[in-house]
Amino acid sequence: MRRLILSLVVGIAVALIVIAAFPPYPQFVLSRIAVAIVVAVGLNLLMGNARLFALSTPAFLAVGAYGVTIMLNNNVPLLVAIPVIIAVSWGIGWVLGTLALRLAGFYLALVTLGLLLAIVAVLESGGSLFGSGYGFAVPIPDVFGVQLTLTLWTVIAIITASVVVILVQSLTRSRVGRAWRAMGHSEMLAETNGIDLLRLKTSTFALGSALGATGGILYAFVEGAISPDQFTTATMVSQLAYVAIGGLGGVLGSVLGPLVLIALPEFLRGLANELQIVYG
């Protein structure tokens, strides 16, 4: 609880600095980094901690982004839409977890990749409900009369990422984290030591899926528009790169990967512009 409170304080402090000092584009970059951290933590939870090779994270990113947009377009309040989407994603992840009990490695990767391709196909040909293949402009919601602009979504994204990192870090150091490591090392040995693999795999997939959908909800409002080509296998490769650069199994690595792949190119682009101004 103390760490959760500390993470909230740090997240709010950083968010207030963003509001006070940063113009819109740096806010946009920071919010993209925060969204990527939430997604990377969920993916690292599956691949790094539990050693479950799942490629379905962009599918849940799409569920979150499209789900919240469709519900808002149908006049569902934001505070109702968010828990419904997370609960649905948790349920789908739970089902995938039961499949993971029977599949492993390459075969699990194929099944989860199939889920991703199926969802992209639905988004591209699902009719007007899904934007007729073109996607949507994401409406700007209001909560209790306050319009949630990009600046406020940047604040929300930073706080969400801070809380997610601290909570998952705490989980990895708990009995659950030890069970993940045992399962990743040897499922037979884990079962011998009394670990319930069905419960562990289903809950791990459910949590990773819920984090992916949470990232998708934030992604929709940060980007302002969504379309099927934002949730393809190219997105999956980018997310795998976040985890690979930061390192499998470490929650802080899920922070490092997005920082390197999103912040560094922006910094180098700005540096190149400055040099061009100075030297012509």
Characterise this structure:
There is one protein chain. The chain has 280 residues and is mainly α. 78% of the residues lie in helices and 3% in strands. The protein contains eleven helices and four strands. The protein has helices at residues 2-21, 24-49, 57-73, 78-100, 105-125, 150-172, 175-185, 187-192, 197-223, 233-246, 251-279; strands at 136-137, 142-143, 146-147, 225-226. A hairpin with a 2-residue loop joins strand 2 and strand 3. Helix 2 packs parallel to helix 6. The model has no long low-confidence stretch (mean pLDDT 81).
How much β-strand is present in the residues?
under 5%
Give the number of helices.
11
Note the overall shape.
Answer: globular
Rg, rounded, reads 19 Å
Counting copies of identical and different chains, the oligomeric state is single chain
Q: In terms of per-residue confidence, which ranges show pLDDT below 50 for 5 or more consecutive residues?
A: none
Helix content: over 70%
